[in-house]
Amino acid sequence: MKNNGPNQFGTFEGVFTPTILTIIGVIMYLRLGWVVGNAGLGGAILIILLAKLVTITTALALSSMATNIKIGAGGAYALVSRSLGVEVGSAIGIPLYLSQALGAAMYITGFTECWLSIFPTHNSQIISSLALLGLLTITIISTKAAMKAQYFIMGIIVISLVSFFLGKGDGKHEIVMWGSFEQVPFWDVFAIFFPAVTGITAGAAMSGDLKDPQRSLPIGILSAVATSLLIYLAAAFWFDYTSSSDLLINNFTLMADVSRWKILVIAGIIGATLSSALGSIIGGPRTLLALGQDKVIPFSKYFAKLSKNGEPQIALIFTSIVIEVNILYGDLNSIAPLLTMFTLLTYLALNLAVFIEKAIGIPSFRPTFKIPLFIPLIGAIWCLAVMFLINATFAATAIFCILVIYTVQVKRELDTPWGDVGSALFCTIAEWAAKTSAQMPQHAKSWKPNLIVPVENPKEWFHLMNFVRDIVFPSGTLRIFSVIPRAKDESLFRRKLYGKSHEKNKLEQADQQLKELVSPLKKEGIFTVEITVDSDKVLEGINIISQVLKGAFFPPNLVFLTMSGDIAKDKGLGEIISIYTYQQMGILILYPHPKAGFGKNETINVWYRVGSQNLDLLILIALQLFKNWHADLRLITVIERNEKKDEAIKFLDGIIHSARIPASAEKVFLSGTYQSALKAAPLADLNIFGFSPESSIKMMHSTIELVEFSCLFVMESGYESFEN
Question: Are the C-beta atoms of 659 and 619 separated by less than 8 Å?
Answer without folding.
Answer: yes
